[in-house]
Write a structure and sequence with these properties.
about 375 residues; Nucleotidyltransferase, domain 5; five-stranded mixed sheet; 12 helices; binds 5'-O-[(R)-(carboxyoxy)(hydroxy)phosphoryl]adenosine; binds zinc ion
């Protein structure tokens, strides 16, 4: 099955084409195209993602990116001049679906006038969670392309995409139960999965997500958006230069609360007060102490969840799993304390938002025939829950 996947939940427009085969217990994936168009520079000027700017950029870039992905996958085929264009009836249907994305409509009409319908089987698209104006572009584009190319479409939960992203790097799938720590710009969750596509939320953040805390602390330190990688780099600089540790330790919020919830807003405020009191403070030292506070809390809660639920596999995924120090400490701690547990982490380029992970999740839902039905109205859902 060849899957064209669309991801527009935040500030990356992403299209992937993935060839998938096998059953649930024996899935195989081959990435034919992996395209990401980042809007980071644009949003950096505003210090964070501006939803309507994101929507505009997605609408501008999505079909050119589909074209780029199809070319990468060798699925792009030019039409001879004499061949017919799409019918008036179909054009009207597309205009209805893309009433709020006229630019996408024009791109699709131009595209279909020049290229044959590409040979693939399914369109997978992110329906939520995320920024609704941004999500809508992907949802509507998926529905329009599904009409034009007569391919079924399957909606995907963005967080499920993150959770399943490590499957691309391992030849055998993880054993259940799986404990997943999902850490991104919008989410911090511990999820227990006892079988394919079934999830139980064990705990989550009560305020800021961990990626959000990285971004806000970076802003306090005068670093550009997105702050996660900036803080990671500064922290490793502090380590390499052997800088002294901060005298005043930052708090580890809720580390001993006994439950599996998180809170990062107080940690961010503690950094703010620290920097206000000590304007000359070394930013690299603050970055390292902040990062360590985050790692300590995430590790403590994950260990507690392991003790309570005895998983066979642990997955860490989402943008913050891009942090190499965090992964290093998780690997060291789990292999020492729980040598029988299989720790799975996506490769670095699959930690942050991409459509390859949406294709993987879409494949499993396609195996269960969970396609959008004819005439079904499909909506973006910014607060979709696993
Ligand atoms: O998963 P993701 O790309 O988007 C969401 O679904 O939110 O995650 C983005 C988040 C941002 O907050 C970003 O600062 C953070 O992941 N991030 C990192 C690193 N790379 C990205 N945080 C810490 N260290 C990193 N290396
Ligand atoms: Zn994400």
């Amino acid at each position: 099955m060849i899957i064209l996947a669309i991801e527009t939940s935040c500030d990356e427009t992403a299209i992937s084409i993935v060839e998938a085969s096998g059953e649930f217990s024996t899935p195989k994936f081959k990435v034919l195209a992996h395209c990401v168009s980042s809007q980071v520079k644009l949003h950096a000027e505003w210090g964070g993602v501006v939803p309507n700017l994101a929507k505009r950029e997605h609408a501008r870039n999505i079909i050119p990116l589909v074209q780029e992905a199809l070319a990468q996958a060798s699925l792009l085929e030019k039409i001879e001049k004499s061949e017919q264009k799409i019918s008036l009836e179909l054009q009207q249907k597309l205009a209805q679906i893309l009433a709020r994305e006229p630019e996408v409509l024009q791109h699709i009409l131009d595209f279909t006038a020049q290229y044959r319908a590409p040979k693939f089987d399914v369109i997978a698209f992110t329906r939520g969670p995320g920024l609704e104006p941004a999500l809508w572009v992907g949802v509507n584009t998926a529905q329009a392309l599904s009409c034009v190319w007569e391919a079924p479409s399957v909606p995907v939960d963005h967080m499920e995409g993150h959770l399943l992203s490590p499957l691309l790097n391992y030849s055998t799938p993880p054993d259940f139960p799986i404990l997943a720590l999902l850490i991104s710009g919008g989410h911090t969750e511990l999820i227990l999965s006892k079988s394919w596509l079934e999830y139980e939320k064990l705990g989550e953040t009560r305020d800021d997500a961990v990626g959000e805390a990285f971004d806000k602390v970076a802003r306090i330190l005068g670093l550009p958006y997105p702050g996660g990688p900036e803080i990671g780099n500064l922290a490793s600089q502090a380590e390499q230069e052997n800088l002294p540790k901060l005298e005043q330790k930052l708090p580890r919020p809720m580390i001993n609360s006994g439950d599996l919830d998180f809170s990062f807003s107080g940690l961010k405020t503690a950094v703010l007060y620290l920097v206000q009191k000590n304007p000359e403070i070394n930013k690299a030292e603050v970055a390292r102490e902040f990062q360590q506070a985050v790692i300590d809390v995430l590790l403590a809660k994950t260990i507690l969840a392991i003790k309570k639920h005895a998983p066979k596999s642990v997955i860490i995924a989402g943008g913050v799993a891009n942090n190499q120090e965090l992964i290093k400490q998780f690997r060291a701690k789990t292999s020492e304390t729980f040598p029988d547990i299989n720790l799975l982490v996506p490769e670095a380029k699959l930690t942050t938002d991409n459509a390859t992970m949406i294709a993987v999740a879409g494949y499993f839902h396609a195996l269960k025939n969970e396609f959008v039905k004819d005439g079904e109205e499909i909506t973006a859902d910014g607060n979709l829950q696993l």
